[in-house]
Amino acid sequence: MTRLAGKLAGKIALVTGAGSMTSSMGNGGMGNGKATAIRLARDGAAICALDLNLEAAEETCTLIRAEGGTAHAVAADVTREDEVIAAIAKCLETFGRIDILQNNVGILRTGGAMDSTVEDWDLMVHVNMKAVFLPTKHALPHFVERGAGVITNISSIAGLRYLGTPYIGYNATKGSIISFTRNLAAEVAPHGIRANAILPGFVDTPMAREVTIQKSDTPDAIDWDALDQQRAARIPLGRVGTPWDVANAAAFLASDDASYITGTEITVDGGVSCRV
Ligand code: NAP
């Protein structure tokens, strides 16, 4: 088994949503989970890359192995308890241990309180909340037994406030992930387990592009560079975020450099949430 040297050398990380849609979307098909899996591997962790789509998870593993890292792909739907249990068992069977759980899966449907459908509301609550609850619930016995573990949940700055577009179901679930993480951190701290949340701002990922495509009457004519510049103008640091910005924060939280950090949030948004 090849491992890279680094701050996470010898650690095992389970990253959910670690695949990403194909590169046909123009940004290399790089999502937050995929970049995080690659980044944690660069720091020396062996990766269990979980995704709904096995092919997408395999692609992430291929990229990790090409850099000399170690990775194993697992297909699972994080909203299905049986599949989460099986995925964790597979990760333990493959690597013998899990040290880091990165709960990255999340979905977005647009709409405000008046125009959101009940189906979209239920889907976001179902996916976004179970995506943090189920892997956590089933990784915890293992973490408690070992008296150690790190859980990082991906929320969003949309969980803090309205950002100018009505995404009420998404924002409500992302706000709930902050509350979930704080409660979890207090509950599991006596077992030596840390839990934190990352709140990304505007990040160029397949999911973000998909939302833009869905909202456009002329999706084939979207000028991604022009859109990028418009968005960048709203961001104090002057650029849209990349999945690597999120991955870098995840690598920090997973490392011993963050050993006294639990129950909190790291905002990764180029300063957007500082502006009213
Ligand atoms: P993404 O590119 O769509 O990546 C998410 C991955 O999760 C995809 O590979 C997706 O597979 C997979 N997935 C979806 N449902 C799943 C399920 N039930 N079980 C297992 N895997 C599943 O999205 P992203 O933009 O990187 O978002 C990742 C996280 O960052 C989300 O929690 C999102 O809310 C959060 N976030 C994103 C932004 C942003 O601007 N992009 C901002 C703030 C927060 P498929 O492709 O097959 O569906």
Give a concise summary.
The protein has 276 residues and is α/β, with parallel strands linked by helices. 44% of the residues lie in helices and 14% in strands.
Task: Write a concise keyword list for the protein shown above.
276 residues; binds NADP nicotinamide-adenine-dinucleotide phosphate; alpha/beta; globular; seven-stranded parallel beta sheet; Rossmann fold
What fold name goes in the CATH topology slot?
A: Rossmann fold
Main sheet overview: 7 strands, parallel
Number of DSSP helical runs: 8
Give helix and strand order, one letter per element, not per position: EHEHEHEHEHEHHHE
What's the overall average pLDDT, rounded? Answer: 94
Q: Which structural class do the helices and strands define?
A: alpha/beta
Percentage of residues assigned to helices: 40-55%
What does this structure look like?
The protein is an alpha/beta fold. It has helices at residues 32-42, 54-66, 81-95, 118-146, 168-188, 206-215, 224-233, 243-254, and strands at residues 12-16, 46-51, 71-75, 100-103, 149-154, 193-200, 265-268. It has a single domain, classed as NAD(P)-binding Rossmann-like Domain (Rossmann fold, 3-Layer(aba) Sandwich), CATH 3.40.50.720. It is built from eight helices and seven strands. It has a seven-stranded parallel β-sheet, sandwiched between helices. The protein starts with 11 loop residues before the first strand and ends in an 8-residue tail after the last strand. Bound molecules: NADP nicotinamide-adenine-dinucleotide phosphate. NADP nicotinamide-adenine-dinucleotide phosphate is lined by residues 16-17, 19-21, 31-33, 51-53, 56, 77-79, 104-107, 127, 154, 156, 200, 202-203, 205-208.
